[in-house]
Amino acid sequence: MMVGLAKAKCPRCRRGDIFSTPTYNFGGQKMHERCSHCNLYYEREPGYWYVAMFVSYALNVAEMVTFAVGVHILTGSNSPWLYTCVLLGIIFILSPFNYRYSRVILLYWLTPGLHYEPARAADKPADSNTTHQEITGS
Ligand SMILES: [Zn+2]
């Protein structure tokens, strides 16, 4: 599971890629609309990616706290400018990472009813023509 998450693979079959571009590139990250292997429609409902903003916020807070503590341990400084510069730099550098993994975490851990289905990981998906309606209709 952690490998699939780290590689940003489809949460259902762990075979198809979620993103069509690498984390760091100059054109921005683009997503596949559907899993190339099991045909999962990634945007589970309208506004689904909006929820990823909250995940991204949590990631940012965790990273800022981690690096603030790290700066304090390494330098012992009390200068607010040092912390401000380091943290702004960190958030800027990690923003592509946060964008990508906020969505991956949302798909993997925060979406009820969406989980790994080993049958779909087979070379020929058990049901390759599942539609969006069939997936989201509960
Ligand atoms: Zn898939």
How would you sum up this structure, described in words?
With 138 residues, the protein is an all-alpha fold. The protein has one domain (2-136). It has 4 helices and no strands. The chain has helices spanning 2-6, 48-75, 80-109, 132-136. The longest helix is centred in the C-terminal third of the chain and has 30 residues, at 80-109. The radius of gyration is 18 Å and the shape is elongated. Bound molecules: zinc ion. InterPro entries: DUF983. Pfam families: DUF983. This is DUF983 domain-containing protein. It comes from Mucilaginibacter conchicola. The chain crosses the membrane at residues 48-74, 80-99.
